[in-house]
Design brief:
Elements: H1 16-26, H2 39-50, E1 56-60, H3 66-73, E2 77-81
Parallel strand pairs: 1-2
Helix pairs in contact: 2-3
């Protein structure tokens, strides 16, 4: 019995067909499309790509719990912003403070 391509049970790890289809649909290049194994993995990759250990990020105190988990895992400091009395996110708390 000869082994052939029918024995390959795993999907393409680069998801080339999916990336090409999504790129065409959204008018992008396939190189601009990133796919992963769910939001938790994509969030972890984002932490590694955009933050360095010791950086500080800000997010609302009512948010996805993995922000705190990944902050700890990747040694990123964070500051929680409390909701206002009407349970709104006070966007101005995320903006840089102007001095002068």
């Amino acid at each position: 019995m000869e082994a052939n391509e029918s024995l390959r049970l795993y999907p393409d790890p680069t998801c080339e067909s999916l990336r090409n289809t999504l790129a065409e649909y959204y008018g992008l290049k396939a190189s601009q499309v990133f796919v992963g194994n769910g939001s938790d993995e994509l969030l972890a990759f984002s932490f590694m790509a955009f933050f360095n250990p010791g950086d500080t990020i800000i997010f609302p105190d009512i948010t996805y719990s993995f922000y705190e988990v990944y902050s700890s895992m990747f040694s990123v400091n964070y500051r929680l912003i409390s909701l206002d009395d009407e349970f709104n996110v006070p966007v101005e708390e995320f903006l840089p403070k102007m001095t002068g």
